[in-house]
Fold these 2 entries.
Entry 1:
Amino acid sequence: MSSRKSATGNLTRRRFLAGATLTVGGLAVYSGEIERHMLMTVERTVYIRNLPAPFHGFRIAQLSDFHFHDYDESFFVRHAVERVNSLAPDMVALTGDFVTTRGDQPNIVIPNAYACAEILGTLTCPIRFCSLGNHDVLIKEQVADALRRNGLQVLINQFTALEKRGEKIWISGVADAYFDIPNLSLAIPQRKLNEPIILLGHEPDFADTVASQNYVVDLMLAGHTHGGQVRLPFLPALLLPAMGEKYVEDLHQVGSSAMQVYVNRGLGCMHLPFRFNCPPELTLLTLQPA
């Protein structure tokens, strides 16, 4: 009798272990091959004070955190570009980490910067702005050159105006706040006639610095966090980088200021080629007057 119970117990344990192994394996396949390529289009309306009438309904598509050829393949970046092109936005914002660099041999990934930029150059929207991320900084001259060669305007502590029917909004780009030297006095124009300012910057928590220094920015577009990348049920995001721990994803008001920050979950992955409960994101923001 005891041997029969022992055999039954062993069989039950084996079944449990087999089931657990299949479950873990299934989750690995799902998060590594399915959700990692499950591009989600997130549409949000952003209300901007003093938005000029010609820019009512102005649509901005945002992609971020490509980490090209590390855990992001050519076909998936092409797919994202095709999706953006199908939306026909008025402007495209690309908010950094085009490559993945490591401190020992950063030059190895320079070809990835040019390959990624070549694909992004097929975006059909003529108004295309880029900021750089912390992984781009070690080879920032090459990343910026790759983007510019493919018709993408890079803003590093710079700004430019978009004008429609005599009215303006300003597009700014700040240097990476993690490894570079952001200079807000160069990146943000002197505000004239309350014209709106949109700032591209990779690390979302830098928004607090912008607001604390009394720079008037209406909207900051950021990435960096990957939305946490692996989001287990009932638990907070576990894989958050420094300067991406407060504003993790989606649209946020920055303190008591009028500034808002939108955090895109990114296209690629870091550390592990997995996404769970946190699919890659293409954002489509529509500007409307507040």
Entry 2:
Amino acid sequence: MKSLSKTALMVYAICPRIQAGQKAVFGSVHFQKSLELFEKLQDNTKRIAAESGLETFWIFDHKQQGRSFGEKYSNAFEELFKQGYGQIISIGNDIPGLSASHILQAQSELLYSSSVLGPAEDGGNYLIALSATTFDKASFANLPWNSEGLHQALKSHLQFRHGQNAQVAQLEYLIDIDDFTSFYDYIKKLKSGDFYRFIVRLLLSINTFAKEQKQFFEDLIISKDNPLRAPPTLL
């Protein structure tokens, strides 16, 4: 039995090929480019997990037991708590702004708080950190997962479970990539770095996109200090 103070990092992930098909960030005709994006995000998540130094478990949704997302996700938490971990920090594999510091901050907050939430700008959560005493499988499974009301519903659930004075710590808001709009909102903030260069190469490789959205590329690549215009329409 592991120490109840031991923390596990759980990457609850949708495999890149499934994500690319479901989200079609660059339109259905550019499936391969969407796949490259989500593979890059997954590689980034692997690096971040390693940098955190926490024992990490990768759980893919399509292999997890359960009928709904809520059932699968709650089963994943239960499995790790049964292994003796006292705290679990859960993240996804589609958050480009996530860093190891977010994970370590959550671990630190769990010393004083019953739970920690990393809210996503779409109303969901990119990070959920719970202690074993906080977790209630049945009610957790029935939360409005994959909806814009998740963050508030989860926060209310945790406060109700431990009383209104319960400490539910909150990290900064980040963007998770669900579609082209969320992708566009994120790249507007980029100025440099490895992921920025990857995005430029990826978009330039989409020939029809590059030809029809010339102004978009001028804003993105040449005039980086100017705000981008409205998202272009993809074929």
